[in-house]
TrEMBL record:
Pfam families named in the record: MTS
GO biological process, one term: methylation
EC number(s) from the headed UniProt entry: 2.1.1.297
Record protein name field: peptide chain release factor N(5)-glutamine methyltransferase
InterPro entries reported in the protein's UniProt record: HemK-like (IPR004556), MeTrfrase_put (IPR022446), N5-glutamine_MTase (IPR050320), SAM-dependent_MTases_sf (IPR029063), Small_mtfrase_dom (IPR007848)
Catalysed conversion reaction: L-glutaminyl-[peptide chain release factor] + S-adenosyl-L-methionine = N(5)-methyl-L-glutaminyl-[peptide chain release factor] + S-adenosyl-L-homocysteine + H(+)
UniProt entry keywords in alphabetical sequence: Methyltransferase, S-adenosyl-L-methionine, Transferase
Organism (species): Kribbella rubisoli
Keyword Zinc-finger tagged: no
Source domain of life: Bacteria
Length: 254
């Protein structure tokens, strides 16, 4: 184990001891351990190496090529849980691994739907949401959902890509080199995919339904204005400890 820690530390790992322990725990034998250490030293994100990510106290399966859930996004889940009642219809749109839906469903008995345009993400999310009876569909945003959900959604979670195209090159190598750019690229100002979701949100939400999206601090005022433009009341909520910014919209039918 000492050699593993030394190799990880030499490759730039700040948490070499913790990473070594996780890799050792996940490896089935010495041969696999060596291969996993080689992958991590080469720069492959730890979550891809071990096959899971810790999120809201859950082990979320993460397949190579699927967006890795971030710890800051736990704040979005916490905000959603404040308004999610038992029996609610919850949609995780652009779900990736399905981490958001799983984290909510682990705390509340809900009817859960999720959708993503990437086949690898859909396969991964199905595994993560199976324990909660989640229904996962493949397709482009709302088009993937059953039409019967129109006007029936209580809580819409949508952690869609929000990195401006020109800023992808500035991301840490683990994201920039290994995660699919479609899961990161939010267009010129980072809000292109969000705008598409906001434009249709009120078609799917129940009156009084909630829409949560994670964005950057500088994008949040624009996103709030977009929600208002599309018939939602909206607020910005932040968590300084996690460095997280969430815009929360409520559909108040007039």
């Amino acid at each position: 184990m000492t050699t593993v820690v030394e190799r990880l530390r030499a490759s730039g790992s700040v948490f070499a001891e913790d990473e070594a322990a996780l890799i050792a725990e996940s490896a089935r034998d010495e041969s696999e351990l060596a291969a996993m250490v080689d992958q991590r030293v080469a720069g492959l994100p730890l979550e891809y190496v071990v096959g899971w990510a810790s999120f809201c106290g859950l082990r979320i399966a993460v397949d190579t090529g699927v967006f890795i859930p971030r710890r800051r996004t736990e704040f979005l889940v916490a905000e959603a849980l404040r308004v999610t009642a038992a029996g609610a219809v919850v949609v995780d749109l652009g779900c990736g691994t399905g981490a958001l839906g799983a984290a909510v469903a682990a705390q509340r008995e809900v009817t859960l739907y999720a959708a993503d345009i990437e086949p690898a993400a859909v396969e991964c999310a199905r595994r993560n949401l199976l324990p909660y009876g989640g229904i996962v569909s493949e397709g482009d945003l709302f088009s993937a959902l059953p039409d019967r959900l129109r006007g029936q959604v209580d809580v819409l979670l949508s952690n869609v890509p929000y990195v401006p195209t020109d800023e992808i090159r500035l991301l840490p190598p683990e994201a920039r080199l290994y995660e699919p750019h479609v899961t990161l690229d939010g267009g010129a100002d980072g809000l292109a995919v969000f705008r598409r979701v906001a434009a249709e949100a009120t078609d799917w939400l129940m009156p009084g339904g909630h829409f949560f999206v994670e964005l950057s601090e500088r994008q949040a005022p624009v996103a709030r204005a977009v929600m208002v433009e599309h018939g939602l009341t909206a607020e910005i909520v932040e968590d300084d400890d996690l460095g997280a910014t969430v815009v929360h919209g409520i559909y108040t039918r007039r």
